[in-house]
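Final paragraph of the annual report: two paired records, presented back to back.
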Amino acid sequence: MSGFQVSRRQALAFGLSATALAAIPSWAWAAAAELDEAGVDAIVKPFMAAFETPGIGVAIVRPGAAPFLKGYGVRTMGKPAAVDTHTRFGIASNSKSFTGAALALLVGEGKIGWEDPVVKHIPEFRMHDPAVTAMMTVRDLLVHRSGLPLGAGDLMYFPESTHVAADVLKALPHLKPARGFRAGYDYDNILYLVAGLLIERVSGMSWGAFVSARLLKPLGMDDAVTTRGDLKTDNVVGRHARLGPPVRGIGKMEVMQPDESPMIDAAGGINASVSDIAKWLQVQLAGGKLPDGKLLWSPAQAKEMWTPQTIVGSSDGPTETNPTRAVTSSYALGWFVQDYRGIRLVSHSGGLSGQVTQTAMIPSKGVGVAVFSNTEDAVSGGIRNALLDALIGAPAFDWVGSYVARTKKGQEDALAEVSGGIDKAPPGAPSLPLKSYAGRYRDPWYGDIVVSEKGGKLSIDFTPTPVFKSVLEPWGPDAFRTRFAKEAGEDAVVSFAVRDGKVTGVTMKALSPLADFSYDYHHLEFVPVR
């Protein structure tokens, strides 16, 4: 959510009502490079109707024209306040490009080098493998090739916890790799937090203070803040999601509360308006040049930030149902880079609980698009593609119909995967008296859980994560499931290892097979605290 690329939940984005499906227009988009307000409305409004989206913000930049900026719908479902061009959204992993640019400023000033070992600037930095510790460079922090598994460590900051950013340095030595160093792509947030700490060590300013002073202020991004806690206005979108049943991502749209920790800021903490993000897209497309002609960063660093570093995936290219499928997609320094209808696309997405946002640029055309949504549904990605197609004069394609079809298939696949529900306990039962499972258990990167027995029932407290408190219900042999509050996040299956009548360890997994990758329960390995 975690922040980051769009998650499985966000990509599926199921749960359209029969009424909404019936309202989908059958026409395809007419491509038009001269996209005016009526044309943008004709793209955005059918998507919002189809996906029952409360609110959308749009920014479009193109050569020789003022940015197009517009808000649609309401900030929070059930309330009249409208989304406008200064409404703040959490841009989540779109923040990563700001961290990349902050490092580029320091490289340009000669204070660091992209190939500097991280330990040169953070001597206590450690990975699980000492050899990887020595080889990890500043560049490696940004490009998702460290060998860490997808979403490693995310449970430290999704949902909000008592951990602070510096805790990632204590956690990393205990996070086991899923593959060899630089052997492939696995998206992570945790190394962006290290990058934030490195910026602080080198500049003497916190990540937030540095980004505010060196990027947001020179660009005139007056609505933007680097952490949700600094918002001083009520012109902020609410969060919305389909919280089930049977699983999150299905059901009616509901209002929910933000749940990300401040420690995630360097990977996903910026809150901004579409007015702000237009200025970010403009300076990116201008290679770091500000409107007054001054350089915010050098052309050399602009090239570095967009140069592919890690292959994300490859395919045979476009298909009849997906005309923009990339032949090759890659990750650069805070940006995804891929082909889009035969031309280069530089983009990112961001997902938080209850929001998904998109930024995208086609450098050869000088155009950029941002689409901010206040829902977990995949609507922002569809609007992004339709706007890009219109801006480059691509052949007509029915993006609404395409996304509705993807949604329907995703819903069917999801229901099949959970076999009609996830509330039926598997066979098996506890092998010990319940009081024998009680105790304090510790995972070296996450922290402690406390299991208690009272009145013939077990409960669990994830001590670093205040919302993770729950009863434990039997769920197979020596296993139990949580029942967290509806908005708290994905439930877990808690499995106890038993030997000679005693608990020797605890492992977990998400209850739902569709859980967002940031609920990385499967990376936890608890042992009893004696």
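The closing record of the year follows.
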Amino acid sequence: MRGATRAQWAACAAAVALAATACGGGSDSGGGSTAGVVSSSWGDPQNPLEPANTNEVQGGKVLDMLFRGLKRYDPKTGAADNMLAEKIETSDSQHFTVTLKDGWKFSNDEPVTAHSFVDAWNYAADVRNKQNNAPFFSDIVGYADVHPTSGEPKTKTMSGLVVKNDKTFTVALKSKFSTWPETLGYQAFSPLPKVFFTDHAAWLGKPVGNGPYTVDSYTRGTGMKLRTWDGYPGTDKAQNNGVDLKVYTDNNTAYTDLISGNLDLVDDIPAQQLKNVKDDLGDRYINQPALIIQTVVFPLYDPQWSKEGMEKVRRGLSMAINRDEITKQIFQETRTPAKDWTSPALGAKGGFSATLCGEACAFDPVAAKKMIQEAGGLPGGKVTLTSNVDTGSHREWMDAVCNSINNAIGEGPVCTVNPIGTFADFKNQLSAYKMSGPFRSGWQADYPLIQNFLEPLYYTGASSNYGKFDNKDFDKLVDEANQESDPAKAIATFQDAEKILAEQMPAIPLWYQNGSAGHSARLSDVALNQFSVPVYNQIKVG
């Protein structure tokens, strides 16, 4: 889920300061919100809210309220239902004709047309625009011409995108991709209005979309106010007057504000509160499976972690982690030890496997120590684990993981923790590819397909391949799976690719994460979608 710089975004949008304090606590009555408005905990996004430049959860929450694309994933089932698409037709899984529904417009009253999509996708793919999600468009014919590996692009548009009329455009892919239409609910494929291109700075200051909400104001470090768009043409209209997203750097503070009546919604229950949350909230506590996995990724761009034989060290570290104990003691019923690199929410038919990682994900301290020693030991005799610590109880589990590793190796505190204060700072360090040791990666699926758990994270040059894993055999199998028209055969091929991850261990699967949330008594119809994001438009206040 992520160019103009963050500084420009803040400068443009900081005109109106929100009522929230730096830690997000409010003092207003009724959950700290205006009448009919939901107040919810949040964290600053890493980048301005361009759909193709946002690939992290906090920015994604906002995009989900501001935009609607060709497809939208059903909040309960994850099914990719048509939203702006009237139909998407193909006879060969390679050439597609997209027909739009009538009546859609942006919040500035500009009609949504075929150009709104094609222009947005060409902008996203253009290497000069430095969009993080550009690789999502790499399947389209002509992508290499606008996004070369080096040098300037040959053209500004991809030849595989052709506008036929205001309601129709065609897409030619480089090869067969049978499930390509199912990916189009991802926010990177959102349409964009003309003002995005004609007055980019103004759009960054106050984004214009076609979803059920509009941006009222944003102050970095404090929060964002979104208000219901009365003219929204979709069927999923907002059932409230708006949403106030309040920035918290400590989710314990957010939970305290919820309990004290100064906040309506917390969508990340801190680990320290899990023992009390059922007593505190009763049926206002939500805990459900989600398309989320937590891993520890190795910086394979660093030779000390990628040299020959280091895969044994990486596997050994995985075997040194007592996932069962950590998930029970810290996370209780909200995490499940990982057995593969996907999510149980996919189901077996969707590609989840409880046996794929095998012994490499089983706690065996004796075997772990032996494997690490036989491979020459840890680089420099130590390992440093890095994560942001403002959300997700990350400090607690990192300490526990290091304790487990230290106990297994038995050579003192060889594993230490490097906490980073905010998620945005952590993501900036990841994007700079300067990590010297393993780092946390939490993956919330963009769409409910096994492909999305593998290709964006581990395919060479992929948008979220922050460890720079590079394996030709893995890439080849992913390509074959994408081209397979039989869903069962495609999933089996994806799992063959996943077996390479089990051998090479570019990332250690830690645990699958449930979606958890708590809300105030004045809210009703509160639910999380399969991606663990609140379905804000369905929430009622009062």
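Confidence is low (pLDDT under 50) at residues 1-32. This concludes the annual technical report; the extension proposal builds directly on these records.
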